[in-house]
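[Automated response] Your request has been received and processed.

Submitted sequence:
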Amino acid sequence: MSIAVKKIGGRKYAYVAYRNGSKVVQSYLGPANRPDVIAQMATVEKDKSIPSQLFKFYWDVDPKKLDVRRHRRFIIERILDLGDLEAFWWAQKQYPTALLIEVSLTSRRLSQRSRQFWKIWFEGVYAS
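Generated structure:
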């Protein structure tokens, strides 16, 4: 989900864009200067960042600058290799299971031990 702000006739209007299957749908939120629209825009922007309780897995980068969509592979690799159950459940809410499985199969950053763990975890989903 993302926010699009369009300027029409000197005024700014906010729209929320999201996927519905293969289609991208835009819904009108209202004028971008209304307090309720500003609050909705802030909520969507907050969802693009990593929760502070997961910062410990990103000690070598600034976790506040990681975008959950743009840096998804890096974020998933760290969670699968170093994360705890809470981090994994957050990742499950953010990303499709197919992406988590694909990263666990193809990532060169995952340790062999982590790769084996995720192979057992996703046992019914993995293709032998």
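Summary generated for your ticket: The chain has five helices and three strands. The radius of gyration is 18 Å.
If you did not submit this request, please reply to this message.
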